[in-house]
Amino acid sequence: QPELSGDFGKLMEWADDLRRMDIRTNADTPSDARAARSFGAEGIGLCRTEHMFFDDGRIHVMREMILAEDEAGRRAALDRLLPMQRQDFTELFTIMHGLPVTIRLLDPPLHEFLPKSEEESREVATAMGMDPAILAQRLDALHEFNPMLGLRGCRLAIAYPEIAEMQARAIFQAAVDAAKATGAAVVPEIMVPLVGLRSEIDYVKGVIDRVASEVTGEAGIRIDYLVGTMIELPRAALQAHTIAEAAEFFSFGTNDLTQTTFGISRDDAARFMTVYQKKGIVEHDPFVSLDFDGVGELMEIAATRGRRTRPKMKMGICGEHGGDPTSIRFCENIGLDYVSCSPFRVPIARLAAAQATIAAKATRMGDA
Ligand code: PEP
Ligand code: MG
């Protein structure tokens, strides 16, 4: 494991004494979680669960689940995924040993799991023992013109609640397992992605709460938990006060929030952002460093309106901007509780958060 030692380790300790915000990590594998811990991460701010299904041993089960013709077929695949997810989450909870862990419900654009060519479709049909004509029909039915704006995030959990049910079950089973193994309290933070309506979080929270009481009842153990949401759509930011009636925490998904505020595809922006910068249209790429005027204003509105409903609401950021120093400064100024970034950016974030706290204090003193 990488370790921070010597003068750099000392510098980090000074930074830790000064900073107000916590530093968490985005991690979905045990090795990322361990690396982040050794760099000083104080929890997981985002576990992207869809990343747990891309490897060869699992993607075919995921595909079976998505391509299933009915709920019974989906449930059969989900039954096979449940023990895998239980193991995944137990490992993360154990590594984090009582530190907060935010697990996000499945948020893939569905096409990421589907075969991408005719040849791959033939292979999948053979592997699944499915008639190629039926597979073609299913693929047709699942085709989306705009997958990034389609059946993603909480929409998936609402269309197929059994997926959220499986993940919630795995999270609570893992919390019980890890609490027993480590003796440390595990308080899962379950995050619902791509929420735009209060009724969406209400619906998904209903599923999570039901599963929580089933699992903890069976285990005879109490597990405290939080259900929160990403703020990654302009509507969610504007309606933060109503969404906060149901959500117990907010995490700013600034990758999608930048995409949806600008109406620019996050996957294609890099191409013309270079031209935009060269021609002076923008000073910097807003996908790298926060756009304070548009995206930042929405964040500030969301933080203020969310706190109007829930004054002590926990808020953080888990988009890529969480590891960018000038964006961290902005997060300090709007009073976020933590930033979450990729493991190798944790030391930079610790330093930047300390600088942000000092700068904010200096500004307040200057104002006084
Ligand atoms: C985001 O949108 O900022 C986010 C953290 O989620 P993802 O990048 O997985 O869409
Ligand atoms: Mg997102």
Offer a few descriptive terms.
368 residues; alpha/beta; eight-stranded parallel barrel; 16 helices; globular; binds phosphoenolpyruvate; binds magnesium ion; Pyruvate, phosphate dikinase
Which cofactor or ligand species appear? phosphoenolpyruvate, magnesium ion
Into which percentage range does the β-strand content fall? 5-15%
The biggest sheet amounts to: 8 strands, parallel, barrel
- Encode the helix/strand succession as letters: HEHEHHEHHHHEHEHHEHHHEHEH
Q: Span from first to last CA?
A: 46 Å
Query: How does the overall form come out from the CA principal axes?
Result: globular
Query: How many strands?
Result: 8
Give the averaged pLDDT, no decimals.
95
Rg of Cα set: 21 Å
Tally of DSSP helical segments:
16
Instruction: Briefly note the structural class of the backbone.
Output: alpha/beta
Largest beta sheet: strand ordering: 1-2-3-4-5-6-7-8
Instruction: State the helical fraction.
Output: 55-70%
Spans of at least 5 consecutive residues with low confidence: none
